[in-house]
Predict the structure.
Amino acid sequence: MTIRENAIAKLQQLSEPLLQEVTDFIDFVIHKHQVKIADSQPDETLVEEWSQWFEAVDCLDVSPFR
């Protein structure tokens, strides 16, 4: 079983709230790696990317932690 298949099998067993946590973590990891790439880009591009990221975060549907 590949890493991708193993991850998918585990994801299929999670409840919706746990899937949301996993999705948030995946978004964090993607963002972290995009920031490393953005370090070599001009400041205007970086500002625009951060602005888009904040807009995307504002749209997240987050339920209260119980």
Summary: Residues 42 and 48 are 10 Å apart (CA to CA). The radius of gyration is 15 Å.
